Amino acid sequence: SRDRESRHTLITGGVGSGKTQTMRHMILEVMRRGDKLIVLDTKGDMTAGLPGGIVLLAPQDERSAAWDVATDCVSKQDARELAARFIPKSDDPMWSEAAREIFVTCVTSLQAEKPKAWNWADLHCRAIMEPEVLLNLARKYNPAATQFLTDPTSKTAMSILTTFKAHLSTIEALAQAWGEKGNQAFPVSRWLQETEGTVPIVLQRDGRYPKLSNAWISGLLGILSSHVGSPSFEESDERRIWLFLDEFPQLEQMEDFSALLDLGRSKGVCVVMSAQDTSQIRIRYGRDRTSSWLSMVGTHIVSRLNIGEGAEDVSRAIGMQEVEVPVVSKGQSGGQFSKTVSMQPRLRPVITASEIASQLGPHAKGVRVMFLGVGEDIHIVDMPYVPFGEERAAHVPADWTFSRSDRLPAPDREATRPTGADKSLLSKADLARIRARAKEDKS
Fold first, then answer.
1. What is the per-residue pLDDT across 415-426, written as a single tens digit (0 to 9) for each?
2. 274-325 confidence digits (pLDDT tens)
3. How far is Cα 364 from Cα 301, in angstroms, rounded to an integer?
4. pTM of the model
5. In terms of Cα–Cα distance, which of 255, 259, 262 is closest to 285?
6. What are the φ and ψ backbone dihedral angles of 207, each rounded to 5 degrees?
7. ∠ CA(367), CA(372), CA(374), 5° rounding?
8. From the CB of residue 95, how many other CB atoms can be counted at a distance below 10 Å?
9. What contacts 285, CB < 8 A, 6 or more positions away?
10. Could you read off the pLDDT of 178-211 as tens digits, one per residue?
11. Handedness of CA 212, 122, 396, 198 (dihedral sign)
12. Do 303 and 25 form a contact (C-beta atoms < 8 A)?
């Protein structure tokens, strides 16, 4: 039902258990209905096999559209969300939080000087400016960062700048990939507001570039979450926006993902996640948050699970049943042996963890899965295989992935350059000296 669709779906199953096959059925049905959908592609099969046209977002692929971050990231809070994706939390949060404030300074200055018109090359150009230039920008656009830049020769400032610069490789890669895309720009905020369905949006994760993939995909989904959670994105009974997140735990932790599950329900957002088992999600998000999310999921589809915590979770969720089992009693009296059989009640799981491991999963005619949450009963369904033809190549390497050139796209020349922006930038030698000095001070 429409209500159950908006209560989200979780697909669990071990490697090779048919999770992706199960997801394909749902994706094709969503496409037939003309609903909007975003698909996370972790293996390249969705890119290659989805019928019809697609919009591919994959900086490592030559055919990729460019994420129009300037249109989606318009406020300081948006900038903070983006900073959290590109600069992960460190063991000592002080360094990462301070580095994020410098990142926010770069973004907010672009938001003010080039509203909705800057790109990744502009951001990279601004991020590698001298500390004195960043300090001027902070005073004007983000005063919270001034304390970290006032004395760039201090031990604290050098450590913060080193943390900040250490994470710029991702921005540099996006500047090379998406610095000059023109009409191929894709803004997720505008896509959300469109009333009619569009072709599938495919977010391709590349295992060769896990840091890059996790940063931009988590950033895009984080921005999407913030737009969905905004009161300006009205509730709707008719709207349907689907997110198919295959191998969801492979992504970095997203603090605001709960908005998609909680607030998204009344706004027509339907999330379909897959994981090898629930313990993977617990490792990434913690036991309490995972339990809260599972309570929001209306439909749980289970394929073959290895015996372990995940299979035990499913077994407990289904519950126990009372069965009668024969109990044989033997006795001896006057040299005679007697045997009586009586039926006695016993409690046992409706389906045990070992049965989940052995009875579900791929077989000759399809994938056998178990549906929980669809009414009062548990359903075991044989889903036929969905063959995907090769509509297009799974991957076409972008030039920047094998080019030896360090050339970056030039930022828009119409950009308003802040005072001091024409000064020389920090070189690799400068960074080496900063790191060496910080190491000496620490020792």
1. 333 333 333 344
2. 988 887 888 888 888 888 777 788 898 999 988 877 788 888 888 888 999 9
3. 20
4. 0.81
5. 255
6. -65, -20
7. 105
8. 20
9. 253, 293
10. 987 555 888 998 898 886 667 899 999 998 888 8
11. positive
12. no
Tell how far CA 364 is from the center of its chain.
33
Burial 393-410 (b: 16+ CB within 10 A, else e): eebeebebbeeeeeebbe
For residue 29, give both structure tokens: 């049905």
Q: How far apart are CA 260 and CA 226, in angstroms?
A: 9
Cα separation, 240 vs 434, in Å, equals 51
363: CB partners within 8 A, 6+ apart: 382
